[in-house]
Each structure stands twice: as C-alpha cells, then as structure tokens.
Amino acid sequence: MAESKRDYYEVLGVSRDADDATLKKAYRQVAKKYHPDMNPGDAEAEKKFKEASEAYAVLSDADKRRQYDQFGHAAFEGGAGGGGFGGFDFSGADFSDIFGDIFGDLFGGGRRGRANQGPMKGMNIRKSVRITFEEAVFGCEKELDMILKDPCTKCQGSGARPGTSPETCSKCGGKGQVVYTQQSFFGMVQNVQTCPDCNGTGKIIREKCPDCGGTGYTSNRKKIAVTIPAGIDNGQSVRIREKGEPGVNGGPRGDLLVEVVVSRHPIFQRQDMHIFSTVPISFAQAALGADIRVKTVDGEVIYTVKPGTRTDTKVRLKGKGVPSLRNSSVRGDHYVTLVIQTPEHLSHEAKEALRRFDELSGNTLQAAGSGAGSETKSGKKKKGFMDKVKEAFDD
Ligand SMILES: [Zn+2]
Ligand SMILES: [Zn+2]
Questions:
Q1: pLDDT > 50? residue 373
Q2: Residue 183 Cα, ligand 2 centroid: separation in angstroms?
C-alpha cells in the first residue's frame, strides 16, 4: 500500500520547504477542484480529494509533518494494515479546524447555511376550540383570543437597540450553523450543529432593544375570527393562513391550525354524515300507531308510527343528517331507533284497563302471572320481555 501512495508534497504540488500559507493555498486549489460537491459521482475526483485532504492534514500539523519528513508514509502505518484511507489514522487530526477554516469561505458560506439565510416560513401554531354538536353540523363563527408574536416595531425586528445593529456572529460567520467535518473510513462526515454562540441566528446583539428584549418580537393579544365550516367533525382542523409564528428573513408567517373539539350531545350521536338518536314511544303508540314528535338538528319533525311497530325499529329521516364538508347542500340522514317504553307507575285505573286489555287479547302474558305486565321492572331495552309482547301480537 505504501508503495502506491503518492508523496504528500507532490499531491499538493508544493516544494518540501513550503510554509503553512503556501500549503493551505495549494490545498484549497486542489480541494476546490476535486471536491465531491463539484464533481458529483466522479470516483476519481473523490479519490484525489481524499488524497489531498490526507496530505494537507498531515503537512499542516507540525508534528506529523516532521514524522512524515523523516519516515515517509511508513510513519502513519499501523500494524492493522490500514483501512480505506491508506492506513492513516485521521481520528487524531483536528478536522474541525482544518476544514472549518478552509471550507468556510471556500463555498462562500451559502451552501451549508442556506436554511438560515433565505426567507423561511414561520412555524405553525395549533390551537383547539370547543364547539357544540349543532355548531359542528351547521358551521359557526368563533373568535379566538390569541397571543401572537409580531416583529418588534421599535427595532424593526432586529432585536438591537435603535441606533445600534446586530453584529455578525464570529463563531459561525453569520451562518447560524457550525460544520464539523470528520474523516471516517467511509469518507468525509459532516456534522452540522446550531451555533452555540448565536443560537442559530447568525447575529450577536450587544445592546438589546428595550421593547422586545433583543428577541426582535413582541407578543400581542389578538382576536382571530375563525369560520368553522358546516359538517366539520371532532378532531378536524381549520387552517388559517399566515396567523402562525412570524416568518424569518422576510418569509411568510406560519399558519394557525384550529382543531375543533365537539361537545357530546345529550340526544344525538354522530357517525360521519349520519346522526343517530333513540326515541321512546309508548306501548299503546306502538300497538295502535301514532304521530310522534322527533327531535332533529333542524328542529322537531312529526313522524307517523305505524300500527304494530316493534321496539328497536329503525326509522330513516332522509336528509336530516350532517352536511358534507365539501358540499353543504348534500346531507346525511338521521336514523331514529324507536324504543317501546314499558309503563312503570300506573294508576289503579290504568292497571285495571291493562288487565282488561290482557283478557281481551287472550290473556297470553301468562308468564307474568297474576300481577300481569304491571309488575315487570323497567323493560326499556329488555328484549326478552318485548319478545313476549311480540309473540302475543303475532298470534
Ligand atoms: Zn425590538
Ligand atoms: Zn453564531
């Protein structure tokens, strides 16, 4: 391996007595020419780039350069026979200094710091609003009380005391990020971190604006009108454009996402565009038929119960459901379950009438014994009991 390696001075094209400035200049030229970013997919260029980087890493370090001058490549060949980088152990080299320095201005800083330099949209804000069942069905207007950040008017968002201006952060050169480049067996590994000195802003404020305390933003209480569309369901959100956090570098504000939380309704339940409810009817209404009032989201409607209606009969009220979010003229249906109520607190006369009814209808409720139906406990949803009633009428 050692035999095939080119001389480090030759790689960089400098004489053996080249000083640090000359080395750096030479490396910059070679690195720029062969940098993988400039030669995407070119394996030969990548090899040359690595070769130059290795040469520079060694020659720019006084100790390593002395060893190299004395022993050549053999100075860095470990017993393991080396890895993909010709046996040179790069873990000892301080690459953050070398490459940070060189690449910092090599690419004009724009490439890696781009995320922090151009206009960026602000963050979205999420908020929830509680609405009633009916408000979800028909839509509503809500007003949210919010505290929103605005660019500070005193400092125009710079965060610096008027008359002063923020300084460019010297640690990151205003990029807001620091790039640590390390050599691994797999090539160059770059770690990008938010600059610890300026917290990614790229600027250091010496004298803070008194109004915003250097943040560049002031918090203001705002009332924001939200139009909740008809048909919205629990957990869905309304997006209000550009009512989120302010943008960065002239970018647009983020959005406000308002999630609706729909309160439970005492009578209605909802599934997608359909509404469900249960309506109690009396035994007599079920047996004889009757006009009953049924509550819907549009108000009460009259529904005609057919004679001989059984309990748990489902009735569809077409178009009394929830409007479609896309087209509010399209509505779901309202399904009503008719549940026959068993009378519990009967007057003496009512009991007599019921006994007479039982006799007239053939005294078929034998299981109830002498107490007839009146002693039966709340039979609202007990199918067993109702089945018996049905049997009685099926005869
Ligand atoms: Zn300010
Ligand atoms: Zn910085």
A1: no
A2: 24
CATH class given for the domain over 2-94 = mainly alpha
Judged by its nearest atom, the ligand closest to the C-alpha of residue 211 is 1
Confidence of residue 199 (pLDDT cuts 50, 70, 90): confident
What distance in angstroms lies between residue 272's CA and the mean position of ligand 2's atoms?
51
pLDDT digits (tens, 9 = 90+) for 14-47: 998 899 889 888 988 888 888 877 777 788 888 8
CA of 217 to the centre of ligand 1 (A): 6
> Count of CB atoms within 10 A of residue 237's CB?
16
Q: Which of 2.60.260.20, 3.90.1330.10, 1.20.1260.10, 3.90.170.10 would CATH assign to domain 269-340?
A: 2.60.260.20
Helices 95-106 and 43-59: angle between axes, nearest 10 degrees: 120
The whole-model pTM stands at 0.55
CATH superfamily of 125-262: Heat shock protein DnaJ, cysteine-rich domain (2.10.230.10)
Average pLDDT over residues 360-381: 52
Residue 30 Cα distances to 41, 72, 247, 326, angstroms: 17, 21, 40, 61
Q: Report which bound ligand comes closest to the CA of 158.
A: 1
Q: How far is the CA of 198 from the centre of ligand 2 (A)?
A: 4
Q: Say how many Å lie between the CA of residue 143 and the centre of ligand 1.
A: 28
Question: What's the 41 CA to ligand 1 centre distance in angstroms?
Answer: 48
Q: Name which residue leads in pLDDT, 77 or 197.
A: 197
Q: How far is the CA of 206 from the centre of ligand 2 (A)?
A: 14
Tokens describing residue 390:
């049905």
Q: Which residue has the higher pLDDT, 107 or 127?
A: 127
Q: Among residues 223, 253, 224, which one has the least CA distance to residue 238?
A: 224
